Amino acid sequence: MRRSKFRRPCKVLIFNGARVLVAIVRSLHCAAELTHENKSAIHNCCTGKSVRSGAYYYRQLHPDILLEMDDLDNLTLKEYDDLCGIKRKYISTRKMAHIRQRARDRQREKIVTSHKEMN
Length: 119
Fold this sequence. Notes:
The protein is α+β, with helices and mostly antiparallel strands. The chain has helices at about 30-35, 40-45, 75-85, 95-119, and strands at about 10-15, 20-25, 55-60.
């Protein structure tokens, strides 16, 4: 049987601005659909090239780490990075709140303009 040239999807962890685990999704594509962010920006966050994308932090699930449902809303980003043995930069919670607010405002503007175009 021929091997596929595509890599298997990696699970992606999504942390909110307060650095708490809010979602575990099955692939980068699903993370992009859920958060309405750019796939390449999420990939850069997972690989460490970017700190965050939008109002979220993203990490790939490390193969040696097992997460349970109890970890949702309990596991922090710093704890996860310590478990993985990596050191990354973080943005202050206050600045992330401002970023999240700007993202909401932009999304509201898109909705308003789309409704105006329909009428």
